[in-house]
């Protein structure tokens, strides 16, 4: 049998596996044959990003020339997961170790809010995201996600609403508790966002059970959900007529979404999610859509073995963008502020893995490119645009920073 010699120049990761599969189809062999051929893989300099089509898979992420200063806004040694501003300018911050803090406008020190439920803190679990009701000024509701224990060593993701009176929560009420209890401490999700119609969207990761939860609409986890502000199920949710389905599900086939934002113009819900080793994704969430995990993926197992040979399949959505290798995305903001005119209309995403802020340039619903606009921040957990127009960045073990530019962007 003739031996083939291939020289592949690309970052090692799922992209390499995709190229091998292309080679396999062209020589009409099988996977074992391809892997037994002589391969010389010359890796490019380690760049943290490549994306989407075969044509763009070898493109590295560019780096902005703009000088941007990260000015410390609030010092904290915890893991600041969620951030949201109240109408009076106070900032609420959730810490994954189970604390809720409020930084009053103009103050340097945050105060602790009491009255949280019992929270399962450990590994990736704890107190997670937080949002305020669109009509907060009139109803006072805040919403947060957290890891809920069952007193038998298991935990799951829950969504609670409550009100703040003084320095304490009142009227606490779980409005959704995922029936995805387990001892594993990973993939809780979770991000929250209201749409223009007042529906609450939230994500729950696959809870480390990729072969059970994401593709099964009768099970929680590995999903994006949509509910009324009091926990009721909308009558037009996609699976309300399926007696066996979890009726709050809006989309499924997700791994662990930790970024969610409402597009301020279209009102659409955008998410990003962690892939395994490679295959982090940006997705536009559609009603009843299947986003493929783990049947299709641009990632591989952490051990280097293959999860699936498929990167696309009929009936499953393709990501708008994917990263290989992974950046470990967390937090996402859509920029509208005039303080950053050249960033307007684009997404900012944090990278836990590389300690970077990545700007994703959009053209309608298409991703044009991604570039690092700030690095050396260690683990970037969240990004939000504040009511003052500045971008605020939450960093593990450090606190919250405000981005200041040396000239108008």
Structural write-up:
The chain starts with a strand and ends with a strand. The strands form 7 sheets. A 5-stranded mixed β-sheet has the order 3-24-23-22-21, with no helix packed on it. Strands 4-27-26-25 form a 4-stranded antiparallel β-sheet, with no helix packed on it. Strands 5-6-7-8 form a 4-stranded antiparallel β-sheet, with no helix packed on it. The radius of gyration is 22 Å and the shape is globular. The chain is built from 3 helices and 27 strands. With 409 residues, the protein is mainly beta. It folds into 2 domains: 5-42, no CATH class; 81-329, 6 Propeller (Neuraminidase), CATH 2.120.10.30. The protein has helices at residues 14-27, 31-36, 136-139; strands spanning 5-9, 38-42, 62-63, 68-75, 80-85, 91-95, 99-103, 111-113, 127-132, 142-149, 155-165, 168-177, 192-194, 200-204, 223-227, 249-252, 257-262, 269-273, 280-284, 321-323, 329-334, 347-351, 356-363, 366-374, 380-385, 391-395, 399-405. The relative contact order is 0.13. Helices cover 6% and strands 38% of the residues.
